[in-house]
Amino acid sequence: MTMNDWITVCAQTELLPGEHRVVDLDGTPVAVFNLDGEYFAIHDVCSHDGAPIADGRVEGGEIICPRHGARFCLKSGRVTQPPAYEDIAVFPLRLQEGLVQVRDDRWD
Length: 108
Ligand code: FES
Fold this sequence. Notes:
Elements: E1 7-11, E2 20-25, E3 28-35, E4 38-43, E5 58-59, E6 62-64, E7 71-73, E8 79-81, E9 93-96, E10 99-102
Antiparallel strand pairs: 1-10, 2-3, 3-4, 5-6, 6-7, 7-8, 9-10
Bound molecules: FE2/S2 (inorganic) cluster (FES).
C-alpha cells in the first residue's frame, strides 16, 4: 500500500455518537471521533508535549488534552487554548460502503 491509500478504521456501526477510536495510519496515530453523527480525524499527538489526546474530554467541538488542558478544534485541528500554541493535523475521512475510512494527505 502507498502512503495515500484510504485505510479502514472500523464499520460505521462500531463508532457510535460520542465514541472514538485510534488507528495507526502508516505509523501516525490518528484519533477518529463520532460527534453526534459528525466524524472527525485528528493526529493523536498533542502539540504541547506529545501526549496522546484521544481520551481527553470533548466539549463544544473541541478536545481537551488530558495532560495540561490545551484545547483543539476537532474539525480544523486549530489550537484554542494554551499551553499548546501549534495546531495539530487533521485528516480526510470518508464513509464508504458502511466503513469509516481515513487517509494521510499531508504528502499529496
Ligand atoms: S501535552 Fe497536551 S497540554 Fe501538555
